[in-house]
Amino acid sequence: MYDGCRQRVWAYVVSRAGRQVADEVVNETFTVAWRRLDDVPEPPLPWLLVVARNILRDSIRAEARRASFAAEVMSWAQPAEADIAEEVSERSALLKALATLPEDDRELLILAAWQGLTPAQAAVVVGCSPLTLRVRLHRARRRLELAASACPPAEEAAPAHRVSTRARIAVGKEAR
User: Fold this and answer.
1) CA–CA gap between residue 17 and residue 49 (Å, rounded)
2) From the UniProt record, which GO molecular function terms apply (predicted)?
3) What is the pLDDT of residues 52-83, one digit of tens each?
4) Domain ranges across the chain
5) pTM for this entry
6) Alpha-carbon torsion 99, 104, 109, 111, what sign?
7) Which of 78, 98, 119, 103 is nearest to 170 (CA)?
8) CATH architecture label of 77-176
9) What DSSP character marks residue 5?
10) Peptide bond into 43 cis (omega under 30)
C-alpha cells in the first residue's frame, strides 16, 4: 500500500499545502493507515487522501495553506526561457489561472486531473455525493477556462478557444 500510494498522497499534499509540510503529512497519513490497517478499504487511495486531508485541516491554519499553495503554483509558472516551446508558456498561463481560482475549485481540478481520481473517488475525498462533485467539477472547469482566457501566454495573446482547449485537456475532460 505504501509503495503504491505514497507518491500520489505526497502529490496531493503538495498541491494543497506545499512541499514544506508534505513529508510530515504523508508520514502521519501512513502512520494512521498502519494503526487502522483493518479499516483501510480497497482501493486505499481515496481513504488515504481523506486521512491526509483531515491531517492538513487539523494541523495547518487555512490561510497558511492557501498562501503556501499559491506560492508553489506561481513558482511553477515562472516565465520560460525564450527558446522553450509554446506549450510551456501555455502551461504557465494555465497554472497562473489555476492559482487565481478558489481553493475548493483548485482541489477538485487537481483531484480529477492530476490525481486521476474518478468522480466517485474524488467525492469520497471532499465529502460529497458523486453527483454533487460532478456539478462542482463542471463549474470549476468553467471558471478555469474563463481564468485561462484572461491569462494568455506571455509571448503572445493566444485566442481564447486555444487556451480553453488546453484548459480542458489539463483538467481531464478528454477522459470523458
Assistant:
1) 13
2) DNA binding; sigma factor activity
3) 999 888 876 655 656 767 777 776 666 545 44
4) 1-67, 77-176
5) 0.50
6) positive
7) 98
8) Orthogonal Bundle (1.10)
9) H
10) yes
